[in-house]
């Protein structure tokens, strides 16, 4: 049990060494930051559009299947 606190302290000291932080990339342009402020809404709109597209494809597949069934029964 006494080894755990000593190990924790050693790891903490190693993490707090004098290494400089990694270089950060250049900040995003203003147009990109404006898009990020609308990101939650745009993501919702994209999800809604995907759902509409999937529903449209499902309806088309159903219509095609019904047409095939009608052609086979005639």
General description of the model:
The chain has 74 residues and is mainly alpha-helical. The protein has one domain. 76% of the residues lie in helices and 0% in strands. The protein is built from 3 helices and no strands. It is elongated and about 85 Å long.
* Overall average residue pLDDT: 79
Shape: elongated
Calculate Rg over CA atoms.
29 Å
- Following the backbone from N to C, one meets helices and strands in this order, namely HHH
Q: So how many helices? A: 3
Helicity, as a percent range: over 70%
Return the structural class.
mainly alpha
Distance between the termini: 83 Å
The tally of structural domains comes to 1
Number of strands: 0
Low-confidence stretches: none
**Strand content bin:** under 5%
**Tell me about the biggest sheet?**
none
Can you tag this structure with a few keywords?
about 70 residues, 3 helices, mainly alpha
In short:
With about 70 residues, the chain is mainly alpha-helical. The chain has three helices and no strands. The model has no long low-confidence stretch (mean pLDDT about 80).
Topology:
Layout: H1 3-15, H2 30-37, H3 39-73
Biased composition (Basic and acidic residues): 45-55
Region (Disordered): 18-74
Biased composition (Low complexity): 25-40, 57-74
């Amino acid at each position: 049990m006494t080894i755990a606190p000593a190990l924790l302290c050693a790891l903490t000291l190693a993490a707090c060494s004098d290494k400089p932080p990694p270089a950060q990339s250049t900040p995003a342009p203003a147009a990109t930051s404006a898009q990020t402020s609308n990101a939650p809404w745009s993501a919702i709109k994209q999800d809604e559009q995907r759902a509409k597209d999937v529903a449209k494809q499902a309806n088309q597949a159903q219509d095609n299947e019904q047409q095939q069934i009608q052609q086979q029964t005639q």
